[in-house]
Specification:
- This is Redox-sensitive transcriptional activator SoxR.
- It comes from Galactobacter valiniphilus.
- InterPro entries: DNA-bd_dom_put_sf, MerR-type_HTH_dom, MerR_fam, Redox-sen_tscrpt-act_SoxR, Tscrpt_reg_MerR_DNA-bd.
- GO terms for molecular function: 2 iron, 2 sulfur cluster binding; DNA binding; DNA-binding transcription factor activity; metal ion binding.
- The chain is mainly alpha-helical.
- Helix content is 45%, strand content 6%.
Length: 157
């Protein structure tokens, strides 16, 4: 079994992480991860980069903006694995974002069976909740489902 000091080629990191090679290069360009170079200029990554990539990927999937991930990872060294305490610190920093995302997803799940303020006026409740598409006068999109649609530029969905 390989130990945590092994250096992995970018293709192996991509295979193991499930991320595209281009994404790994992009994350390195942003300073989220670091590699060493061989004499021939090929990237080699420490095995602990796999956990960092997994956490970055998971955070993005649940709506943590990449800029926020980068800012929160900035204090930690790139050349050493993060400690359990470090991961707990990140988890606590992202908890409010995750709780808000869970609440938003729950509201979407619960609201899809009723008028969502999209302007279709096809459901019986639309006459009550969105008479004559009044919600469309202020903004586009499903106004009851996403009341603050203009603030969602950094969500992945």
């Amino acid at each position: 079994m390989k130990d945590s000091g092994d250096l992995l080629a970018i293709g192996e990191v991509a295979r193991r992480s499930g991320l595209a090679v281009s994404a790994i290069r992009y994350y390195e360009q942003l300073g989220l991860i670091a590699s060493e170079r061989t004499g021939g200029g090929q990237r080699r990554f420490h095995r602990f980069v796999l956990r960092r990539l997994a956490v970055i990927h998971a955070a993005q999937r649940v709506g943590v903006p990449l800029a926020r991930i980068a800012a929160d990872l900035k204090p930690f060294p790139l050349d050493a694995p993060l400690s359990k305490r470090d991961w707990v610190r990140l988890s606590k920093a992202w908890r409010p974002l995750l709780e808000a995302r869970i609440a938003e997803l729950s509201a979407i799940r619960d609201g899809l069976s009723m008028c969502i303020g999209c302007g279709c006026l096809s459901m019986r409740q639309c006459a009550v909740y969105n008479p004559d598409d009044a919600l469309g006068a202020d903004a586009a999109g499903p106004r009851r489902l996403f009341p603050r649609l203009e603030d969602e530029g950094d969500l992945p969905f």
